[in-house]
Write a structure and sequence with these properties.
The structure is a single chain. By secondary structure, the protein is mostly helical. Helix 5 (159-173) packs antiparallel against helix 6 (184-212) and helix 9 (283-334) runs antiparallel to helix 10 (337-348). It is built from ten helices and no strands. 28% of the residues are buried. The longest helix has 52 residues, at 283-334. It has one domain.
């Protein structure tokens, strides 16, 4: 489905984007207000959980796991809210559907890119196993060669991750939601969806920094106090983004904590090679090897768990998209044949 190209507008030039969704004096029934408050309070609690207890927790695998888990919970909650609202898909504005489907494709692309990066890092672990085997069997020359191969592999760029920068730009633009017609349920849904999009954008942009060592796609947002989760988000963003920028300024190419620990252990082993000491005869190398094994195991288990969480999030997004398309086909065939044709074009696009 082709859409007319609108001129680029400054990002939130007039402050709160929800002034157009829930203007002053806008009325929600007690039931709708309770549903919205419950959603926003739950979101606020999740955002508070993501505030690191100390700065070293930023980009630990455990923090990244929690980020994906909480994001999955929020996306499940928005599906439940849609059901509770009892807002038939035939009553959705076409612009809502367009934004939802477009964003879901972008999120699926990001999930695929993240999965490919996690797989690439796991492949690097195989090279390190070669390092350990060579240290035990072949001496320093082959082990040194394996370390060089690992460094080259870890230092290489993943084109899929680089492509996510443009996707994040598009997700940012979609935060400026279309106007909502006179529908209290629609206004409730759009306000809740704003929270989902903000949390999603935060996690995606943070992860891109983790895997690229760059802070150029950190999107600083300010959420007003009219949202029950606004203060929690602003605190989280200030804490995490501030630490990310500190890490980038320190010229650290590796931001993932467990990967950095592995890299440090590898450097300690490699430094002995530079001194011409035979590793099997060096007590310091043997200690470094033990530490390297431990760090490798921790990284491997973390990567496996994170890959499963990303895959789970992928299927949550995909199932939500499929459910919407299924409802559109059913409603289109019964109520609005032209809309059915329109949405099939959207699916092919």
């Amino acid at each position: 489905m082709s859409r007319p190209q609108e001129p680029h507008r400054p990002f939130f030039p007039h402050g709160n984007p929800f002034r157009m969704i829930l203007p002053k004096g806008s009325y929600l029934s007690p039931k709708l207000q309770a549903l919205l408050n419950n959603f926003e309070e739950t979101l606020a609690g999740r955002l508070r959980k993501l505030v690191p207890k100390c700065k070293d927790d930023v980009f630990s695998v455990s923090w990244m796991l929690l980020a994906v888990q909480l994001l999955s919970e929020t996306h499940n909650d928005i599906k439940s809210l849609i059901t509770e609202l009892g807002l038939p898909v035939v009553d959705w504005d076409d612009k809502w559907i367009d934004v939802y489907l477009d964003n879901s494709v972008k999120l699926l692309d990001i999930c695929i890119a993240l999965s490919s990066e996690l797989s690439r890092l796991s492949q690097g672990q195989l090279l390190l196993h070669c390092v350990l085997r060579n240290l035990e069997q072949s001496g320093s020359s082959k082990a040194k060669s394996s370390i060089d191969s690992w460094r080259q592999h870890i230092g290489s760029k993943n084109p899929r991750i680089d492509n996510c920068f443009a996707i994040i730009d598009k997700l940012t633009e979609s935060l400026e939601l279309p106007k909502v017609k006179n529908s209290a349920k629609g206004k409730t849904l759009m306000r809740a969806m704003y929270g989902v999009r903000v949390q999603t954008l935060f996690v995606c942009s943070a992860f891109m920094s983790a895997f690229t060592g760059s802070d150029k796609k950190l999107i600083d947002l300010h959420v007003t106090g009219t949202h029950l989760w606004g203060e929690a988000f602003n605190d989280l963003q200030r804490c995490v983004f501030g630490e990310i920028r500190n890490l980038v300024l320190s010229d650290r190419n590796v931001l993932v904590k467990e990967l950095e620990a592995v890299s440090t252990s590898v450097s300690e082993v490699y430094s002995v090679f530079q001194e011409g000491v035979e590793p099997t005869k060096s007590e310091s190398v043997q200690k470094s090897v033990v530490e390297l094994r431990r760090n490798m195991d921790e990284l491997s288990s973390g990567l496996d768990l994170l890959a499963k969480e990303v895959d789970g999030f992928f299927h949550i997004v995909l199932s939500g998209r499929d459910a919407l398309l299924g409802n559109l086909r059913v409603s289109g065939s019964v109520f609005d044949p032209p809309k059915k044709h329109k949405m099939e074009e959207q699916l092919v696009r």
